[in-house]
């Protein structure tokens, strides 16, 4: 059974805007962002997702952990970061429509933090905000069947990926399949679903905007619960995605330097290539700039050069 929601004017507006912005991102090579930006965005994603769940570590401390430096902080918080890094290291191996991979990702995220990570809960749970019960999750006996149906829904090719990712996120939060880590898994799996059609989402830290206004995030979940459909949550998440893309485009005015261009080219092309291949990839650079880039890369030992003049070819070292 398809999870209930409605297509509203706001949803259509956001989908149109997101589609245009993704096209602009692709045109600016941001889909293959340079390694520095990639690393920065991964740090922001991990920091934001964990801070929503109460992790106290800063972006600077997470950067230090990535660089194998000693960090002073709560052991639990450090372990959460290490686990998240492990998941993001393997993110391209996870299949969004695979329930087995879903459980595997939870096991990685929560290993050494809870008993039986990677397994659905075997007790009833409710979410309490202050003195008020915000949400009573479905009985634990129903969880395996509900999650199986949700993964079947992911296989529906008639659904737009942007909407499907939001619906999965909301429905998973509603089912609350785990004793802990549901929020992290909902945001991670939405990213994974989006990555299928839009690789840029591996590097787009939309969770940063969620963490800046968590009240709105939980309010959208709450309204959807009360209405019995995910419409409000879809509108909220599409707004967040659209804002994140706008922020990325605003911050992308800086041009790549020669080392970043070469590195970007080598990541996305054959090992052996010519200067013409390089210029075809970066259509906005001059012949002199291309020659200078490749000359510097040879001198720095990044590539090697064979042949002369028109027969010159380059090879990645």
Structure description:
The protein has 317 residues and is mainly alpha-helical. Helix content is 58%, strand content 6%. It contains 14 helices and five strands. A three-stranded antiparallel beta sheet has the order 3-5-4. The protein has a two-stranded antiparallel sheet with strand order 1-2. Strand 4 and strand 5 form a beta hairpin. Helix 2 crosses helix 4, helix 7 runs antiparallel to helix 8 and helix 7 crosses helix 11. The longest helix has 20 residues. The chain is globular and about 75 Å long. The model has no long low-confidence stretch (mean pLDDT 90).
Task: Summarize the topology.
Layout: H1 9-27, H2 35-52, H3 59-66, H4 75-89, H5 99-110, E1 126-129, E2 132-136, H6 143-154, H7 161-175, H8 182-197, H9 207-212, H10 214-227, H11 231-250, H12 258-267, E3 272-273, H13 275-281, H14 287-299, E4 303-306, E5 313-316
Antiparallel strand pairs: 1-2, 3-5, 4-5
Helix pairs in contact: 1-11, 2-4, 4-5, 6-7, 7-8, 7-11, 10-11, 12-14
